[in-house]
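// run 5 | inverse folding | seed 20
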């Protein structure tokens, strides 16, 4: 198997892991915010591994697929948020791809959060929704993104150490 095929297989497996993590909300009866923290951390871990073990094109496909499925599951309330979440996830993946030092644990999640939260506020305000409706819709797109980004990086680091110890 050549290197391109290996990357494609890795990307497919990591996308499957992320999509399965998103499905957990249907079988784990957790409060919304805890649901977001658990599932978001698993998905972000898969995104970090995708950045490290595939390429940016395959990572872009992954980051595009995840919010589409989240919308179809009802986790994203309106389709206008799909490109916002894609953009935030892709910023996160690009940073994880290009930055290999410990600064990524702050820079990646912070820029992802700013992108998603700022983009969601912009899009929802453009729709003219009432402020209380916007506030409720963007809760999971705000500070939880920072936490799940950090936890995803830590989780990916644990998985990578395990993979490297296996040879």
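// decoded
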């Amino acid at each position: 198997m050549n290197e391109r095929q290996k990357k494609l297989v890795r990307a497919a497996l990591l996308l499957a892991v992320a999509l399965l993590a998103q499905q957990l909300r249907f079988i784990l009866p957790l409060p919304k915010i805890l649901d977001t923290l658990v599932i978001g951390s698993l998905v972000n871990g898969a995104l970090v591994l995708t950045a490290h073990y595939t390429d940016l094109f395959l990572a872009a496909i992954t980051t595009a697929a995840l919010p589409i499925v989240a919308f179809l599951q009802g986790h994203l309330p309106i389709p206008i948020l799909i490109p916002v979440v894609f953009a935030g996830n892709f910023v996160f993946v690009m940073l994880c791809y290009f930055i290999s030092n410990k600064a990524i644990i702050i820079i990646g999640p912070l820029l992802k959060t700013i992108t998603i939260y700022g983009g969601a506020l912009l899009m929802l305000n453009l729709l003219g929704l009432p402020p209380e409706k916007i506030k409720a819709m963007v809760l999971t797109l705000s500070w939880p993104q920072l936490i799940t980004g950090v936890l995803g990086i830590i989780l990916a680091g644990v998985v990578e150490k395990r993979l490297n110890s296996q040879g």
